[in-house]
Design goal:
Layout (H helix, E strand, L loop, with lengths): L4 E10 L5 E6 L3 H14 L4 H9 L4 E11 L2 H14 L18
Antiparallel strand pairs: 1-2, 1-3
């Protein structure tokens, strides 16, 4: 039997134009902002990072949407797509979770 994994789905919103990014992680939500700010310096041409860099990270908020346990990657991916649809996540290009559940 495969091990299950608990994922946290989060929403990042900028307060300038309300554009949204939906992601998931196994890490604490407080970690998300600093993680993405650092990645934005390495990958400034990513559409999400380019936008958040433009509006300023001081205008970006992150909040927990839901925590859920999954036994396989496809079910987690479906849930991520669900939240992207619900929140009209216009800054999402690639739906994950890729790295969080590598071998599931």
């Amino acid at each position: 039997m495969d091990e299950s994994i608990k994922l946290k789905f989060y929403k990042m919103t900028n307060t300038v134009d309300d554009k949204v990014y939906i992601g998931c992680t196994t890490r604490p939500i407080v970690w998300i902002m600093s993680y993405h700010e650092k990645k934005a310096k390495r990958y400034p041409n990513s559409s999400m990072y380019e936008h958040f860099n433009f509006v300023g990270w001081h205008n970006v908020t992150a909040e927990l949407i839901e925590e859920e346990e999954f036994e396989n990657k496809e079910k987690a991916r479906q849930k991520l797509r669900f939240w992207q649809y619900i929140y009209n996540a216009d800054l999402n290009i690639i739906t994950g979770p890729r790295r969080v559940m590598k071998n599931k």
